[in-house]
Amino acid sequence: MKAGVIGATGYAGAELVRILAGHPEIDELILSSVSFEGDQLEDIYPNFLGRVSCKLLKAEEVIESSDVVFAALPHGVGEKYAAACMTKKNHFIDLSADFRFDADEAVYNAWYDGKTYQYPDLHKNSVYGLPELNRQKIKKRAASGPVIIGNPGCYPTGGSLGAFPALAKGLNRADIPVIVDAISGVTGGGREPSRSFHYPECADSVAPYKVASHRHSPEIARNLAAMAASGNNPAPQLIFTPRLAPMNRGILSVIYIPLTAQWSVTVNNAMMPPSKEIAAKTAEIRELYADFYRDEPFVRVLPCGMSAATNRVRQSNFCDISVHLDINGSTLIVTSAIDNMVKGAAGQAVQNMNVLCGFNERAGLDMIPALF
Q: Could you read off the pLDDT of 172-227 as tens digits, one per residue?
């Protein structure tokens, strides 16, 4: 197969190239960049020297010559390329938000600077590309022709995967919101320089941003509602707060899920260390999580007593999840860790390609995380 990447010189685009260059089913890479059209990729990113020697073309040339096309572009740009791919019968995997909300233009318009759909019919047939949620839907659509995939956002990936088992099995109280408190590395802001991601502004500091107004909130809420509905449970309310940390890669999400009486533990004195009953209930919920994700190639449920950490998933497509019960016995605390550039962007896009094309889902992604 020939794989095309439109926007190959952004952080997510370059990460796509890095992963696809080692994919056993990809014979050729065809790349484009508006900013560096006509240049050689290895002149911009010397890490590709000797591995990927590729002239950066026009986007239209990429579509014409490729079998599957990835778009790592700003929001509101990709629709015309998706339309061209559907005409040529190429799968199109979009890393922006343009196809994350299916046909719900009102939500997209409200959260993404008033942007509207230029090709509304395309959105009726696109699929939200979180494989752990929509794998069978992706396969079904692919069986009947080319597919548009809306690749999930990075925060929604980590936050959703951490909460899914509890919501599907009805562990949570419906009357108290689920809280997702997440911290991200600076590559999540993209390659274009800005004051917020300027070194003196973000080094030696951790700070929340877009509190109660982050555009990933509706995407997470939609995912949680879909998973709750799969178990015939009501959709939970969501409180989401993102924070920026002075690290290049990674997202750590801490998810607080209020438990029903059935899943809570009665604690007589919360001033004392966690009881044996809390440890037993934690182990029970951990087994529920492990069973839920038993067949998922990229979700690792950690042993009791271990916490998820971003350095253990670096440069990998894994999502690590750890399960804890608070000392009051009434709140499940789940931590999930992903690499925002891989499982949160490029790696997940390649995973979607593998599902679409019937490849081994691990193909090109079976790397061991880089600890240091």
A: 999 999 999 999 998 887 777 677 777 787 788 898 999 999 999 999 999 999 99
17, HSE (Cβ side, Cα atoms, 13 Å): 30
What pLDDT score was predicted for residue 267? 87
Q: Which pLDDT score is estimated for 193? A: 65
Q: Supply 95's token pair.
A: 């890393």
pLDDT, tens digit, 9 for 90 and up, residues 253-284: 999 999 999 999 988 777 777 788 999 999 99
Task: Find out whether 46 and 58 touch, Cβ atoms under 8 Å.
Answer: no
- Residue 304 falls in the annotated catalytic set: no
Q: Which residue has the tokens 């990933």?
A: 216
Catalytic residue among 54, 85, 154, 319: 154
Say what the pTM is.
0.95
Map residue 40 onto helix, strand or coil. Answer: strand
Average pLDDT, the chain: 94
Cα-based torsion angle of the residue sequence 337, 342, 344, 349 in order, rounded to the nearest 10 degrees: -140
Q: How far is CA 333 from the centre of its chain?
A: 20
For 200-350, list the strands marked E by DSSP.
207-208, 238-244, 251-258, 299-301, 319-325, 331-338
Centroid of chain to Cα 197: 21
Nearest residue to 92 (alpha-carbon basis) of 115, 126, 143, 135:
126
Domains and CATH numbers, the chain: 2-125 (3.40.50.720), 155-340 (3.30.360.10)
Measuring CA to CA, how many Å separate 335 from each of 162, 163, 250, 277?
Answer: 7, 9, 13, 21
